[in-house]
Amino acid sequence: MDSFSLSGRDFTTELVFSASRSSGPGGQNVNKVSTKMELRFHVVNSALLSEDEKKLLMEKLGSRINKEGELVMVSQSERTQLKNKETVIEKFYALLTKALKPRKKRKPTRPTAAAREKRLEGKRMNAQKKEQRSKPSP
After folding, report:
1. Which of 83, 86, 56, 81 minimizes the C-alpha distance to 71?
2. Sheet holding 36-42, edge to edge
3. At residue 1, does pLDDT exceed 50?
4. What is the helix, strand, coil percentage profile of the chain, to 5?
5. What is the DSSP letter of 56?
6. Which domains does the chain have, with CATH numbers?
7. How far is the C-alpha of 62 from the C-alpha of 100, rounded, in Å?
8. Are 98 and 4 a contacting pair, CB within 8 Å?
């Protein structure tokens, strides 16, 4: 599979933000100020992603994408709207980078001769131990 890269692409034009009241830190401020930031990114309609990338994101992030094809992320860990917006953008880019990173091929390995011998010796010891438990024949 191709390797995908986010470098040189600015997704800010395709991101939609909304603010609401947070349940996070902020004391009495929580009840008055909308500091929770919600980021919405429409994967299917994105002009910056290729069809292969969209398909890969739908596969890997399927549980995080709603029926409309939007990836929804939330941040409410900070006390200010701006900090939460920065945090959710960082989380978004980290998630996209991780999802688009190609999976490493597994190289099949074989056990060494010493490991095989050690395993067989262990089996022999176990068999001997069980043999000693049986009743002696008359």
Report:
1. 56
2. 15-20, 36-42, 70-75
3. no
4. 45, 15, 40
5. H
6. 11-100 (3.30.160.20)
7. 13
8. no
Per the DSSP assignment, residues forming a β-bridge with 74 are 38
Asked if 42 and 69 count as a contact pair (C-beta separation under 8 A), the reply is yes
Q: State pTM to two decimals.
A: 0.68
Phi then psi for residue 75, to 5 deg, are -135, 130
Residue (of 32, 35, 33, 37) closest to 15 by Cα position = 37
Cα dist. 121→8, 110, 113, 115, 131 in Å? 58, 18, 12, 10, 15
105-134: pLDDT as tens digits: 999 999 999 999 999 999 999 999 998 898
Q: Over the range 74-83, which residues count as b (16 or more CB within 10 Å of their CB) and which as e?
A: bbbebbebee
Please say whether the beta carbons of 34 and 17 come within 8 A. no
Any idea which residue has 């986010």 for tokens?
A: 6
